[in-house]
Design brief:
This protein has 404 residues and is of the alpha/beta class. Helices cover 41% and strands 21% of the residues. The strands form four sheets. It has a nine-stranded mixed sheet. Strands 12-13-14 form a three-stranded antiparallel sheet, with no helix packed on it. It has a three-stranded antiparallel sheet with strand order 15-17-16. A hairpin with a 3-residue loop joins strand 12 and strand 13. The structure holds iron/sulfur cluster. Iron/sulfur cluster binds next to loops.
């Protein structure tokens, strides 16, 4: 990816909008996301800049219908009234026909905040519980205890959102299978519609990565990870949830809370990415550089052309993550006569022979064993790709180039 002017957006297919809010009241040492300490003045300058970025992009996206708005961070509700003003501006400038999704932090979501979100038509929320175990929460540097996290989930469920997701982290230092099962029971017992699980990564550029070295945080043995995923499958099924992605389980007939599975999307805010049909773009990570650039220029720090082959591979990657793909989905997006390139077809055949995929009427489904191996491969993929891209973005506001 290189710096420089991005190409104008190509033809967008059912695109989503994304907003990144880069502020948190407590910076967790393991966190790989782009976030800085909350400060009222910095938030005011960010809010002004996001409004300008929206105004700058809106004319070129006129007439486009967006299927969702996803708000992530950082902690989106770190300043709820400010978030609401930005959200209203999105609703004024874009046609948002689908869900509005917001990530919540247990320590920044009082009842007034939940009421504001409901009034603004937010439909799907995700609470970053991470664990209900006080020892583990202390070990990873979270600012809340287990009781506060579970209370936050119960209040979100009672507030009446369409879907309430809870994030739980596994493979934490010293976490046993029993600890994990207790966390699953606590969160499922609080009435969530969706459960998303992810392992502790140690990215070299995070405080955790720098203080201990990436290798010092040992990944638990493969058999323990397998046992944790199997326990998740069993307990989620007993609570009426079905697996809907490599790391997620969802109650039937509920809308899935998901940040990354829209094919095309346009991102706003520091470090927000966009996939626009012919380009993949990433905004500058630095909130000050972001604010200074607007309204004169778009704050895009890195861009990469996306050709058809790469776009097909990108589509397949996320469909595999969602555990199924078929010819109808491919045709809907790329045209009726589109097939996958030879290299991807060979990969699918090999995965089928290894028992990782099985055929369905019009396509393929990822097996339980396939889901485990995708989880392992994604660990590697995430560590390498995110370390390079996000590491460079955090080092300098305007990197000259990044090799992925
Ligand atoms: S994990 Fe969440 S709350 Fe913690 S620093 Fe990262 S974005 Fe902020």
């Amino acid at each position: 990816m290189t710096g420089g002017d991005p190409a104008p957006p190509g033809a967008l297919h059912q695109p989503g909008l994304y907003l990144h809010v880069p502020f948190c009241r407590n910076l967790c040492p393991y966190c790989p996301y782009n976030r800085v300490p909350f400060d009222e003045q910095a938030f005011a300058s960010y809010e002004r800049a996001v409004t300008r970025e929206i105004d700058l992009c809106a004319p070129s996206l006129e007439g486009q219908r967006f299927v969702s708005l996803y708000i992530g961070g950082g902690t989106p509700t770190v300043e709820p009234e400010g978030l609401l003003r930005i959200l209203r501006h999105f609703q004024r400038r874009f046609e948002i026909a689908g869900d509005i999704c917001v990530e919540l932090h247990p320590a920044n979501m009082d009842d007034r905040c939940l009421e504001l979100l409901r009034d603004a038509n937010v439909t799907l929320v995700s609470v970053g519980v991470e664990s209900a175990n006080d020892r583990l929460l202390r070990a990873i540097g979270r600012s809340h205890d287990g009781a506060a996290a579970l209370d936050a989930v119960r209040r979100a469920v009672a507030a009446g959102f369409q879907t309430v997701n809870a994030d739980l982290m596994f493979a934490l230092p010293g976490q046993t299978l029993g600890d994990w099962e207790a966390d699953l029971d606590a969160v499922l017992g609080a009435g969530v519609d969706q459960l998303s699980t992810y392992p502790l990564f140690s990215f070299p550029y995070t405080e955790l990565g720098q203080s201990q070295g990436a290798r010092a945080v040992r990944r638990p043995p493969g058999r323990l990870v397998r046992a944790m995923l199997a326990a998740t499958d069993r307990r989620a099924a007993s609570a009426g949830l079905e697996r809907c992605a490599v790391w997620s389980w969802l109650r039937p007939n509920r809308q899935k809370f998901s940040s990354i599975t829209r094919h095309h999307y346009v991102g706003f805010g520091p470090s927000a990415a966009s996939m626009t049909g012919n380009s993949f773009l990433v905004n500058t990570f630095d909130p000050d550089a972001y604010s200074r650039t607007l309204p004169a220029l778009r704050p895009v720090a890195l861009s990469m052309p996306v050709d058809r082959r790469l776009e097909l591979a990108y589509w397949l990657y996320w469909r595999v993550y969602e555990l199924h793909f078929d010819q109808a989905g491919l045709a809907d997006l790329f045209g009726p006569s589109t097939g996958l390139p030879l290299g991807l077809r060979c990969l699918i055949r090999l995965a089928g022979a290894l028992g990782l995929l099985e055929r369905t009427a019009g396509g393929y489904r990822v097996t339980t064993s396939g889901a485990y191996w995708i989880h392992r491969i994604q660990n590697e993929y995430s560590l390498r790709y995110i370390t390079r891209l996000w590491g460079a973005g955090r080092r300098t506001p305007w990197p000259e180039a990044v090799t992925l």
